[in-house]
From TrEMBL:
Protein name per its UniProtKB record: Zn-dependent membrane protease YugP
InterPro entries given in the database record: Zn_peptidase_2
Keyword tags: Hydrolase, Membrane, Protease, Transmembrane, Transmembrane helix
Gene Ontology biological-process annotations: proteolysis
Organism of this sequence: Cytobacillus eiseniae
Segments passing through the bilayer: 6-22, 117-137, 143-164, 193-219
GO molecular function: peptidase activity
Amino acid sequence: MGAYIIYFAIIILVPLWAQMKVKGAYKKYSKVPSSSHTRGAEVARKILDENGLYHVGVEETRGHLTDHYDPRSKVVRLSSANFHGYSVAAAAIAAHEVGHAIQDQQDYAFLRFRHTLVPVANIGSNFSWVLIMIGFLAGYSGFVLLGILFMAAAVVFQLITLPVEFNASNRAMEQVVSLGIIRNEEERETKKVLNAAALTYVAAAAVAVMELLRLILIYTGMQRND
């Protein structure tokens, strides 16, 4: 029982810790203006144009930290604070999302692979636990195995997300430095924002892998008892 309590404490606390890190870094550096005094929307537009992505739009979207790149519409969407803000955090996040647009343009392999996994990952996320719970309650190990396979697809999606996000952050750093959007000590601050954001993906992937392994162990135990 004690081991289970520790396990569930870990899978709950690790994502919460990662969220606190990213919110703390964003809150701190959203108050630090960049020396170039460039708004997030302008950062995105400048990097896009420098890379020949004139067809990719930059739009404002509602919410807090809802920034993303939409590969279907070819649009970088920035939350209001980052669209209008000229802080180090706004520049970092805008550049990161443009990093995904550059990946899309260059047909980055991991991004393409992640896109192909989206339908399977969605099914895995929505139905894996339903199948697993039916299997546990009814004692059908086959249902548990099927649920585990669906969950494994979702876990692979999260693991593939890691190189996609880290690569986008690396591209972001290269762009904001080479274009003079951030300078000198701002590089360290920008990296802190990007690294904190990456922690959320690392934490989510780690928890998903741990949960998958736990279910595999439970399934093998059911097989031994049959």
